[in-house]
Prior knowledge:
The protein is an alpha+beta fold. It has helices at 4-41, 77-82, and strands spanning 44-45, 53-62, 93-94, 97-98, 102-110, 119-120, 128-133, 136-138, 141-145, 149-154, 160-164, 172-176, 183-186, 191-198, 205-211, 216-218, 224-230, 233-241, 245-253, 258-260, 263-266, 269-274, 277-282. It folds into 2 domains: 1-42; 44-282, Immunoglobulin-like, CATH 2.60.40.420. The chain has 2 helices and 23 strands.
Amino acid sequence: MLSQRARFWLAVSVMVSLLSFGLACGKKAVEDDDEGDAAQSAGTPYKSKGDEGTITGKVSLNGAAPAPKPIDMSQDGACVQTNPNPVSEEVTAKDGKLASVLVYIKDGKVTGSSNIGQLTFPVPAEAAKLDQHGCHYVPHVLAVQAKQKVEVVNSDPTTHNVNVQAKSNEKWNQSQTQGAAPIVKSFARAETLIPVECNQHPWMKAYVSVLSHPFFFVTKEDGTFEIKGVPPGTYTLVAWHEKLGEKTAQVKVDAKGTVTSDFTFDAGATASIEDGSLTVLPALDLPMLMQH
């Protein structure tokens, strides 16, 4: 049996080893973050030739849209007052067209140049806005460019809590009272899918997509989208919906041309979100699975 002195030194040795391992892991995580930031900032600036084109289209729903689910907001009288007939926003469809679908260029090659992921584009000076109105996040899906400012406001007569559950970017969780100043943040890195919730009101949810370029659009109420200023080239275009999954298409944008790419989602499909990726599953009457 080990003596008391031997047991003491064995414990010290184990603690030192664990501390060294933890410091090494922390250092590697910081290095990985720094490398990711450097890679995103070290691309070649895109030089416009004045021949950019446009991608347009619409997103449709095949089959009957599910009836909007009513939301019980009785825990907060201010929410009931501002939004007397609240319903969920998981699937918002009108006349067979889908709103709140994120459409964006995932990858591809610019004609006579590099892959689009190797180019950098100016960050918009105008801040994107995420409002809390009627005890909902508005818009339900927000797309921004990396390093673009995001302004979160509270238009409701109650307190909200903005819980941003990023993975590649900084997480933050901040309360915002009625009439408080806007919360202004930005995301340093591209991250396709960031859930945003409210700890005060559990039904409140939004998604923020952060792209490294400006070629994205969230569909309007009539399901349409329009992505302007696209350099001539051949690209993979993605349409993402939180409940119905993901669709892709190949598009070729000619100089000063307009290309149309329509998408159709099946009303019988549901999507599982895990680590920012989507898996299309058979239709089940279950809540969407999510790992944070």
